[in-house]
Amino acid sequence: MTDGVLVEAQDLYKYFPIYAGLTSRHVADIRAVDGVSFTIQQGETLGLVGESGSGKTTVGRLLLRLLPPTKGEIRFERQDVLAMDRGEIRRLRRSMQIIFQDPFASLNPRMTVGEIVGEPLRIHGLARGKDVDVRVRELLQLVGLQPYHANRYPHEFSGGQRQRVGVARALAVDPRFIVCDEPVSALDVSIQAQVINLLEDLQSRFSLTYLFIAHDLSVVRHISTRVAVMYVGKIVELADRDALYESPLHPYTQALLSAIPIPDPVLEKRRKRIVLTGDIPSPVNPPSGCRFHTRCPVAFARCAVEEPPLREYAPGHFAACHWVEEHGGRAPQLT
């Protein structure tokens, strides 16, 4: 592992068993994450994108050990997260936090905002008595809310304000790494920009590291340093943001990028969309070989029988595609 790596996942798998019948017989598995490897550098934002059901959220929860992996390795600051006992995990929680997708479901409706934001401080013994109230008000101001909001309940806030409460709660324990699990997908477009700008300001101020999970590629381009593209439990492309958006190698990445609207009616009318046939395969019974071959416009015989490895075709630019490999690292022209 190179210097500067904060989080590392190696050959990470997560299978959810399916049981059926009166005897609850194990009949199949949902292969949510199926052999994923990547690193996250200190201070960067790794964007994780893909269609719904591709395994993005599961990856984030595995890194935080909110879910136990089926197999694989997870390291945080070179420490083996999976080998930690309960006490060590409790201490690790101060360094690793999460911002959830739904800002209403993730906040306890029976607790005031002050109690919600102050709870991590009490659990980890970071403040007591009036010090908790002082720190809560500081955190609320930090995320753009007012100190008097501490006395209100979640239902009294808008969606954007509730998400700011979630951000304040995550910041309460001074974490170094935050998993942002689609933090703006449930918000209006005008509010999304405010929350994204807040996350960027906080990252710059506190040297935070993010795993930013999303399906909105325009949002990911704005905030990410590097981007990983997932498809049915696997990473199919990983590259620096500009390299991935300007020169995508994998056909699936090209199709995703072609769906981003261009705010110019003339250019939008001229360009050609890459329309994929069929639906995303089920993670219960994924296709053999390359999982994208059933929808890929350039698939050939090898794609159906041999799984493509994630290879580096340019410095820091990885792709898992037989077509790219056989054409010397050149991307297929689909448009």
- Which value, in Å, is the CA radius of gyration? 21 Å
Number of helices: 12
Number of strands: 12
Structural class of the secondary elements?
Answer: alpha/beta
CATH fold node name of the largest domain: Rossmann fold
What is the H/E string?
EEEHEEHEHHHEHEHEEHHHHEEH
Name the shape in a single word. globular
How are the strands ordered across the major sheet? 6-7-8-3-9-10-12-11
Relative helix content: 25-40%
Mean pLDDT: 91
Supply the CATH architecture of the largest domain. Answer: 3-Layer(aba) Sandwich
Strand content: 15-25%
pLDDT < 50 stretches:
none
Topology of this structure?
Layout (H helix, E strand, L loop, with lengths): L4 E16 L4 E17 L3 E5 L6 H8 L7 E6 L2 E2 L5 H7 L3 E4 L13 H11 L6 H13 L16 H13 L5 E5 L7 H18 L2 E6 L2 H7 L2 E6 L2 E7 H6 L4 H8 L6 H6 L30 H5 L5 E4 L2 E3 L2 H5 L9
Parallel strand pairs: 3-8, 3-9, 6-7, 7-8
Antiparallel strand pairs: 1-2, 1-4, 4-5, 9-10, 10-12, 11-12
Which tags fit this structure?
single chain, alpha/beta, Rossmann fold, eight-stranded mixed sheet, four-stranded antiparallel sheet, 12 strands, 24% strand, globular
Overview of the structural elements:
With 335 residues, the chain is an alpha/beta fold. It folds into 3 domains: 1-95 and 176-224, Rossmann fold (3-Layer(aba) Sandwich), CATH 3.40.50.300; 109-174, no CATH class; 253-335, no CATH class. Helix content is 32%, strand content 24%. It is built from 12 helices and 12 strands. It has helices spanning 56-63, 86-92, 113-123, 130-142, 159-171, 189-206, 217-223, 241-246, 251-258, 265-270, 301-305, 322-326, and strands at residues 5-20, 25-41, 45-49, 71-76, 79-80, 96-99, 177-181, 209-214, 226-231, 234-240, 311-314, 317-319. Strands 6-7-8-3-9-10-12-11 form an 8-stranded mixed beta sheet, with helices on both faces. The chain has a 4-stranded antiparallel beta sheet with strand order 2-1-4-5. It starts with a strand and ends in a 9-residue tail after the last helix. The model has no long low-confidence stretch (mean pLDDT 91).
